[in-house]
Write a structure and sequence with these properties.
This protein has four helices and seven strands, in the order E-H-H-E-E-E-H-E-H-E-E. The chain has 171 residues and is α+β, with helices and mostly antiparallel strands. The longest helix has 16 residues. The mean pLDDT is 97.
Amino acid sequence: MRFEFEPKLTDDLREQIVTLWWEVSNAGGAVGFVPPVTRAEVWSIAGKAFASIDAGIDHLLVGFDGDRPVAMLIFVSRQFHLSEHWRTVARVMVSPDSQGRGFGGELMREGERVARVMGWEGLYLTVRDGHRVERFYGSIGYREVGRLPGTLRLAPGDDRDEILMWLPLKA
């Protein structure tokens, strides 16, 4: 996989990212939606993410298999001066047809490398309980630092914890 940090967000790349996001969401990935989701619903959230990236507030990392984006994450700023030394890692995703090839680990290792180059001292992310991905993040150095019980309502009667995870980067 080839990575691009802060790639030029052309109309074509935006469409490809929305397609990736839509496919991951409908395959059950916990990236802000509960399936089934439409491309229009994904665009409503992606458009806001693209605006923050375009403004230089947030930063995009994309993994390509050939010319096709198959993995991505967004480094999100809290836009608060006391928090500028770390970033939230959001919208971590790997294309369903590319899973099982180690791309998730590669993406997260590249994200950590980029974060260190940017001078950030820590990375924070949240995980939706019930997918067991906290074990994956734990295996690459993130540690659980808290839980918000029942804060994610997937459907009536299906509330999940939001798991808070932290990766310190400062030596």
